[in-house]
Every structure is written in structure tokens, then in C-alpha cells.
Write a structure and sequence with these properties.
39% of the residues lie in helices and 16% in strands. It has two domains: 126 residues, Aspartate Aminotransferase, domain 1 (Alpha-Beta Complex), CATH 3.90.1150; 255 residues, 3-Layer(aba) Sandwich (Aspartate Aminotransferase, domain 2). The protein is globular and about 70 Å long. Strand 3, helix 5 and strand 4 form a beta-alpha-beta unit. With 398 residues, it is an alpha/beta fold. The structure holds pyridoxal-5'-phosphate.
Amino acid sequence: MFSPSKIKKDFPIFTDSNLVYLDNAATSQKPQAVLDAVDSLYKEANANVHRALYSLGSEATERFENSRKKVANFINANSKEIIFTSGTTESINLLARSLGNTLKSGDEILISEMEHHSNIVPWQLAAKRTGATLRYLSIKKTGELDLSEPEKYFTKKTKIVSLTHMSNVLGTINPIKGLAKLAHNVGAIFIVDGAQGASHLPVNMKELDCDFYAFSGHKMLGPTGIGVLWGKTKLLEEMEPFMGGGEMINTVSMESSTWNDIPYKFEAGTPNFAQAVGLGAAIDYLENIGMEAIELHEKTLLNYALNKMNHMDGIRIHGSAKDRGGVISFNVDGIHPHDLAQFLNEDNIAIRVGHHCAQPLLKTLGESATARLSFYIYNDENDVDKFCDSLKTIMGYF
Ligand code: PLP
């Protein structure tokens, strides 16, 4: 097992600081190796990619395309199926536009009550544009999807199913392989929102058997502004582009255009190539530790924290899924989550409070806001102890 305290030394933000950072579901901190990769690109190889016929341009393109290969290896996919986007949100919007436009009245899009707004709103817009119906799989008290009557939700009308790999509020890890089967049995396309998946769990596109998988670089040690949409070759080739502009075309005449091959068909304009190179360095860093080890570390820390918090009176923890990642949402009787965050901040402890961009789920939970801890590779039991000690003191004030 790796040592979080050693890992912390690779992250400049923790240098000479007693910061306890427990908001990793929102974004992760960056190791020096990622900062160096971005810095070096700008200092040594900055030229636009796929255009320049000089050495600097070739170097930039090579570093950019090398990152695409790293992403492909990381999720066990083919490089041409890796589309760089700005993040999960753009990836899902791309699908909701491009696939969404093939929908018609009477068709159904199936999502769930535990989705992030970025896997709800794009589908609401697609439904509004096309006349399709948006349906929601409900969740059980445990915070798991209610799959007791799948035939009610997965029907011949279901054309698109889009579900999160792991809930950013409850930590629930959804049974992706089984869900893929349910979707494919009715001929639907199955999309996975992997914003909390690829960053915390080993993911293998050949095993999961989804059709599309979306994730964000900034949640997995990488820079902001870079994300990924993976899709099956056949589907990507059949899809219309999402945005028009430079590089996504083959030919352009005054009347019309033809499209470049995948993945470039979906990468209009200058891509965030420096950020993509940073994501490649982040993947190297994660692979060096190993995603299995990361999953185990976070689950161990989760159980340690749950055990401590369950022994404290007045705390309500939301969800109790059997398969669950390192996320804990909770409320404390008599203390508003926003007050809690401000008091914890006095001890340099950073947690997220609010609706976590999941208002429908919060409504189901019967809360307007919760407090949330979320772990990553640099967190350890010491962080959980400091958090629990601070929480006990705060609870004593009220
Ligand atoms: N989906 C889930 C489950 C998330 O947790 C998030 C971000 O918190 C997103 C989607 C959106 O990610 P981004 O803001 O990086 O596009």
C-alpha cells in the first residue's frame, strides 16, 4: 500500500501547510509532475498542434497525441476513440446534441435521481428540442438504484440511457456492466458519466461494455479545461459533429463541408493541448500508484471515517450502498451545513457544502443542503481524525 503522507510531498499546495483537503469530488490537487509537464510544454514546445510544419509544432503535436495514447491505455481503449473535451460537462453536452438530435417524439431518455446536473440538464434540453421524454430511475433508501422492476424503465421506447458510475453525493458505485446489459437488451445506447469513476476506480472500456464514457482531467490530478469522451468507433463515425470550426473538417466549400476522421471530427478549433499534456502526466502519476490500490485506499479511509462518524450523536449520514467510494454526505442536527463549513475552515479543513449540483437527489433525500467529505490519494486517517475532532468541537458550540 502506498503512503499518503509521502504522496503529499509531491503536491506543492500541501508544502508548509496544515491544509486538510476533503473536497476531492469537486476537484483534485495537482502534483509537481503535472505542473512541470504543462510548464515544459509552454516553455519548450509551444506551437499549435496538427498545423505547423516546423519542429516546434511537431514536438507539441507529439506530446499532445502521446497524451491521447496514455488516456487510451488508461481505460483500455483505442486512441482514435479518445475525444478531448473541456470536461465531463462538455462530453455529455456533445452527446446530448449529437445523439440527442436523432431522437423523436415518443422516444425515451433514461437517467436517474442521483445524477449530477451535467447529466440532467443536457438531456432536458435534448428532450425539449426533440419531443422525447426524460425518465428517471429512482433510488432506494440505501442510495442505490432501484432496479427491482427494470422492465418499467428499460423498454422499446428507451433510446438513450445515461447514468453515473459513482455518485458525487452518496459515493454509490453503480453496477455498470449489468446496466449496460439492461440498456443493450432494449437496443438503447448506454452512456456513463465517469467524472467520479475514472478518477477513483480502475476502468476498462472492454469490460464495462458501455457505449460512451465521459470524464474530467481536473478531478484526477490533471489541469482544468481538459476532459475526455470515449466512444465506440462505429457510433462515433455515425454521429454528426457537435461544433464546427478548424481541424474538424476534411474539405470546406462555400456551400458545405465534409468531416475529418474521428477523433478530430469532434475537436473543432485549437484544443487545450497544454492541459491534455498535463492530463497525460497525471495518468502517469496515477498509474504509478495503481488504480486498484487507489480504490482500496479510499474505501479503507471511507470505512474508517464512517466508523468514527457513526459513533457521534446527531449526525445523519446519507446512503449506505454496499459498493461505495470515498464520499460521505451528512447533516448535523441543529447546524446548517454552511455554518459547519465556515467553522471547519477556521481549522483549515476544506469540505463542500450545498446541493453538490444534484438538486433532484437532494430533494429525494429531503435536504436543501448537505456537507460532504470526499477523499483522494493524499488523504489519510490523520485527516479524518482532524476533521472529526474539529466537528466535535463545533458541535459543542451549538
Ligand atoms: N458528473 C459528476 C458525477 C460530477 O461529480 C461532476 C463534477 O463534480 C460532473 C459530472 C461535472 O464535471 P465537470 O464540472 O468537470 O465537467
